């Protein structure tokens, strides 16, 4: 990758990589880990989700500097569709508004969830977590 292709952001003292909401589409997440997890399955059931299987996953975008990492809990519904467990996104991203101010942790999680739900990530989870039995 050429240096000009990197998405450099200033390193912050709080560990967040600040990303404008409009630049989320520039992220190129690559899966690094996924596993089925019985505790996540129980959380999904407790939340009223029709989960047949559940777990967590970790992703990284190394084009950004510093690298962006995101993780979330997922579940598989009875139609075999992978879904994000609400309020489960975690990572080192803080979304900033048009004037460059942080939108805050709760709004960042919601923005990231909305964006993640537009991505095709289920097949990656299926491949990575295929050998994890509950």
Report what the structure shows.
With 134 residues, the chain is of the alpha/beta class. The protein has one domain: Roll (Nuclear Transport Factor 2, Chain: A), CATH 3.10.450. Helix content is 21%, strand content 31%. It is built from three helices and nine strands; from the N terminus they run βββαββββββαα. The strands form three sheets. Strands 3, 4, 6, 7 and 8 form a five-stranded antiparallel β-sheet that branches. Strand 6 (68-76) and strand 7 (82-84) form a beta hairpin. The longest helix has 12 residues, at 105-116.
Question: What does this entry show, briefly?
Answer:
The chain is an alpha/beta fold and 134 residues long.
Which series of helices and strands comes N to C?
A: EEEHEEEEEEHH
Derived from helix and strand composition plus strand pairing, the structural class reads: alpha/beta
| CATH class category | Alpha Beta
CATH topology: Nuclear Transport Factor 2, Chain: A
| Average predicted confidence as pLDDT | 89
How many domains would you count in the coordinates?
1
Radius of gyration: 16 Å
- CATH architecture heading: Roll
Which SSEs are present, and which pair or pack?
Blueprint: E1 7-8, E2 17-20, E3 30-36, H1 38-46, E4 53-61, E5 64-65, E6 68-76, E7 82-84, E8 90-91, E9 93-96, H2 105-116, H3 122-128
Parallel strand pairs: 1-5, 2-9
Antiparallel strand pairs: 3-4, 4-6, 6-7, 6-8
Keywords:
single chain; 134 residues; alpha/beta; Nuclear Transport Factor 2, Chain: A; 5-stranded antiparallel beta sheet; two-stranded parallel sheet; 21% helix; 31% strand; disordered N terminus
């Amino acid at each position: 990758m050429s240096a000009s292709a990197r998405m450099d952001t200033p390193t912050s003292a709080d560990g967040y990589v600040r990303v404008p909401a409009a630049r989320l589409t520039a992220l190129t997440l690559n899966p690094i880990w996924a596993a089925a997890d019985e505790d996540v399955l129980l959380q999904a059931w407790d939340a009223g989700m029709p989960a047949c299987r559940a777990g967590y996953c970790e992703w990284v975008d190394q084009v950004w500097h510093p690298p962006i990492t995101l993780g979330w809990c997922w579940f598989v519904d009875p139609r075999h569709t992978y879904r994000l467990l609400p309020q489960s996104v975690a990572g080192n991203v803080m979304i900033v508004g048009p004037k460059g101010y942080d939108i805050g942790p709760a709004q960042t999680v919601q923005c990231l969830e909305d964006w993640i739900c537009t991505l095709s990530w289920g097949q990656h989870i299926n491949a990575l977590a295929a050998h994890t039995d509950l």
